[in-house]
Amino acid sequence: MNTDNKTKVIYRIIKHVSSYPKIFFGGFLSLTLASIAVLLAPKLIGIAIDLIFNEEKNISLEWSFSNPIILASIALISLAIGRGAIIFAQSYLSEKLSQIVAYDLRNQLFNHLQHMHFGYHDQIKIGDIMSRATQDIESIRFFISMAIMRGSYIILLGITAVVLMLTTSTKLAIIAFIFMPIVATQAAIVQKFLRKIWIKIQLLQGKTSIVLQENFAGQQLVKGYNQQEAQQSKFHAVAKELYDSSLQSSKIIAFNEPILSGIWLISLTCIFYFGAQLIIEGQMTVGQLVEFQLYLTLLQVPIRAIGFIINHIARVRSAGTRLFEILDAENFIANKKGAKTINDISGKIVFENVFFDYQLENTQEKLLQNISLTIKPGQKVGIIGRTGSGKSTLLHLLPRFYDVSDGAIYIDNQNIDDIKLDSLRNIFGVVLQDVFLFPGTIQDNICYGVPHATLDQIEKVARLAHISDFINSLPEKYNTWVGENGVSLSGGQRQRIAIARTLLADPPILILDDVTSSVDLKTELAIEQSLEKFLINKTSITVTHRTRVMKKLDHIIYIEDGQIRDQGQHDALYERNKQYRDLCQSFDQKTQKNEVQ
Ligand SMILES: Nc1ncnc2c1ncn2[C@@H]1O[C@H](COP(=O)(O)OP(=O)(O)OP(=O)(O)O)[C@@H](O)[C@H]1O
Ligand SMILES: [Mg+2]
Asked: What is the number of the ligand closest to the CA of 361?
């Protein structure tokens, strides 16, 4: 992002803030009143002191509303109470504004990522996104509450304090102002150092979450390959760097604090000395000197905060840049203008000269090349090919998980680009090779796409997927918690839950990507039987390695290196195509070997 865009970051944050005008102006009104209340206190104290030292009047502490001392005391107490209430309102509104904007941003980020295309999700690192969703949004929240709201309060307080100091005693004000640039410069230099360290800390926090996330997601691999120590030292290195940087920042803050307090004490002493002279010369009252010292104390806060606020502006620029980078990322797979809903489809699918690649920088050739094929309504098609030949990729193009690079795909003669995404995805029931189960009950996982399904319907599909006996053997049956912190399921059990999930949605076209690869032969045959019944009159595309299954399918597409090498019925292909025959034989050998084992 260039400087221009970085300036826009602040502008965009302010725009978010201004979408809550009532809280925003309420906050500003209370901060104006708060600074008036804060600055009235020294004035009142000054007046009260001068009343005590007033020789002409008979001063007493008698309780009467005509006694100026009592009046001044009541005014001070009332002011303290009023000031407390206003400061509470100001802090509360600033906090509310910052929290509400952070809440909006978090929702926007989640919603945006939900709708981003698969290709984008392939590129991003989960740990990095986590850090943006938490720390970067927190930096923005802090900026709104501290820099925008509290910053305005501090600036207002500073300007008014300067004006009041000048009106109380111009001479003393000039002396005091000599110290101010020293304090401001010291604070700014330290903030500049701190800024660099904080940026580093932010990066390191992101790195830490990436290492943590990778480590826990890949626990099986880590343990399986005895890589605990390597992972430990990888984490240790990042954690140590984070510790060093955090400690360095604490050291700078700790060193800076006594210096700034020292300078302030020297300035107070000078003011006391020169103020005393002015009192002796009769140019100033004791009350005025105290009043002046109190203004100077108040002025310290804005002067020291300048560096802090500037630092936060820089900090929020990098946090905002990282966040808006995601929010601005274009979603390449979205509904086209004028996209239609499609209902009651017959199930005809046409691939017309389809080319595809994942648009990775190092790929020169297209992964899928010139795929042309027609699947008739109700046809059962098989896709066969060696591992990595592009079978899953081809299937992912149908629900537009990825878009074709060239060519077109038609469902019932309609280009899938012209169909609304939700409508298109409702057409397909996809059982993917990699099954994902959400943390939740088995029932939640089965009825994921059909949340209002009855238990009867759920049990029926579980029986079809041959998982109901297993589920009923669990103490809590369909209410058994699976996924994170739940019962661990085997690959085959997960596959069967995924099949049940898809059957429940009852889509017109089924895509089954090697869905029985993890179950035993007996279960596989039983599932095949159920699916056969279920698939009557439905179009289906099955990726399989079983010649037994291939024989039963209407049409086989033989794909190698992303190209259709041959197609037709299994027997004819087996007869005429040597490569196909070799592949089938190698599948059979592998199956037999597995069965013997
Ligand atoms: N999301 C992705 N991003 C980039 N490249 C990918 C992605 N998914 C797959 N590939 C690559 O595309 C090629 C084809 O993969 P694909 O998953 O389609 O093969 P497949 O035929 O289904 O293999 P298998 O039988 O092992 O499932 C592979 O070289 C793979 O590395
Ligand atoms: Mg595959």
From this structure: 1
